[in-house]
Design brief:
The chain has 68 residues and is an all-alpha fold. The protein is built from 1 helix and no strands. One of its GO terms (biological process) is protein transport by the Tat complex.
Length: 68
Amino acid sequence: MGEFSVMHLLVVGLVVLVLFGRGKVSSLMGEVGKGITAFKKGVQEGAKEVEATPEAPRDVTPADKAKA
């Protein structure tokens, strides 16, 4: 009990297909695919941003508090 077999997954898939129809399920899978693609693109852009060379540190101390 509590374990899922391939047969269980097929029955669940068939029930979902009957309840929502083929068109709704295929459009939902298309949206999932677009989401995965957008996620991968965001991860790649984030990696490029992290790899970019940071600018040299600069002194931002106010002039009136700077040591003379």
